[in-house]
Amino acid sequence: MTGETVVYRNDLNLVPLRKFTSTEIDLFFSMCNKLKEQETTTLTIPFNDLKKLSNYTPTAKARFIQDLKKVYSKMLQLTYTEYSGLSFKSFVLFTSYEVHAEDEYLKIKINPDLKEILNSLTGNFTKFELEELTHIKSSYSKNMYRLLKQFKHTGHFKINIKDFKERLDIPENYRMTNINQRVLTPIIKELGFIFKNLNINKIKKGNKFEWLEFSFEPEKRIHSKRQLDMTSISKSNQNIGREMTPEWLKNNNHASINHKAIEYTEEERQAFLKRMNKNK
């Protein structure tokens, strides 16, 4: 699985993966990986390939088939919406799903519009290492991982708490104490190995927490010829979803409380990487 990536337009980050378990998130994005740069809308994936990509560990075939069944029941509920002023269009992402237990392969068919999201990339896209994703345990951390990857070159991301709950599929009745314990603490513990100096700022408006501000050490840009070509193609569209230093960061006068980052030693980081590499 070394070097396998998932790439898609940033818009897909707006689609909440409702009720997806950690395993189901891994399987879903492994399928997205296999659909990357494919001309067809129908794809056949052997069980062994899907298990390897998703770092799937249970060995019983019946368990794997049951997990495939569960992930598709949730994939059927995924819809994508594009807006243009007051007008919009919505569509389901996947249209057909066949599990062939005897021959051990999965056959999936996607909406042609989803193929465009996965393959027709401009300068506004999210890219991450599939192996990193599959080694993260918490489903909240997995979803936060891909959101932060959208802003990996700025190291800053701010989101309204209501939107944060929507994006990560957090129960509506969770108060900030619940979010601290069950969502933010696992995010800091797990993603601190990947996003250096990760810190979460909880910003109040009056007596109520309104915003979460994530900051970390940004990644250096590595420009390939293809990236440069895509950037030039998308100049007219770069005001949508692009990575940039926002005005709130330049003039941040909000009262805030920090959810402090955990300091990791280089030895701890290397141990984490070793755990990632053990299944290669």
Sequence-ordered SSE layout with sheet pairings:
Elements: E1 5-9, H1 22-35, E2 42-46, H2 47-54, H3 61-75, E3 79-84, E4 87-92, E5 94-100, E6 105-110, H4 112-119, E7 125-129, H5 130-134, H6 139-150, E8 156-160, H7 161-168, H8 176-191, E9 199-205, E10 208-215, H9 225-233, H10 247-250, E11 256-259, H11 266-277
Antiparallel strand pairs: 1-7, 2-6, 3-4, 5-6, 8-10, 9-10, 9-11
Helix pairs in contact: 1-2, 1-3, 6-8
What fold name goes in the CATH topology slot of the largest domain? Arc Repressor Mutant, subunit A
Q: How many beta-strand runs? A: 11
Strand content is 15-25%
Distance between the termini: 7 Å
Mean pLDDT: 80
Number of domains: 2
User: Structural class, from secondary structure content?
Assistant: alpha+beta
Give the number of helices. Answer: 11
Major β-sheet profile: 4 strands, antiparallel
Task: Give the name of the CATH superfamily of the largest domain.
Answer: Winged helix-like DNA-binding domain superfamily/Winged helix DNA-binding domain
Give Rg in angstroms: 19 Å
Poorly predicted ranges: 230-257
The arrangement of helices and strands along the chain is EHEHHEEEEHEHHEHHEEHHEH
From the coordinates shown, what is the CATH architecture of the largest domain? Orthogonal Bundle
The general outline is: globular
Strand order of the largest sheet: 8-10-9-11
CATH uppermost class of the largest domain? Mainly Alpha
**Percentage of residues assigned to helices:** 25-40%
